[in-house]
Amino acid sequence: MQSSQRPTDDFFARTMRASDLDLVVKNEIVAYEHPWNKRIFVDCLRAGYQCWVLANRREIVAHGVMSVAIGECHLLTLCVNPDFQRRGYGRKLFNLLLDRAYKMEAEVCVLEVRHSNEGAIELYKSMGFSQIGERKNYYPSASNNAGREDALILSRSLPLP
User: Fold this and answer.
1) Could you give the CA distance from residue 25 to residue 36 in angstroms, rounded to a whole number?
2) Homologous superfamily of domain range 3-157
């Protein structure tokens, strides 16, 4: 049975471990044109960021990293393996991260998202995020002549309703 046909109710959220990083990076590579490397995740774990995965006994289907400090949280990455996208896994993991941030006294969440990432923008807006700014040439991109892509800056207050 292919992984995309497995039942969806056996995935659970747990903290990311160093032993997960090879699988996490594999998901990054299949999901993104410019994936994070293992070193970045090692640094995030060492820094004590909120690093979580959505997994079962066989695989990791999603991961997210969020920093939380002084009343604010910043979503650094939220990645769902393309075989599992549009099934609610990103929303489930992001809700968990936002709930944890709120419990750590974050009052607002901020994130950047590629201007071209329509699926992510749709998810964030459906969760009450609104655009508060833009960062020109923020992301590397081979898709345009300049080699850079703009980012939208989105924000929302916590907690979620």
Assistant:
1) 7
2) Gcn5-related N-acetyltransferase (GNAT) (3.40.630.30)
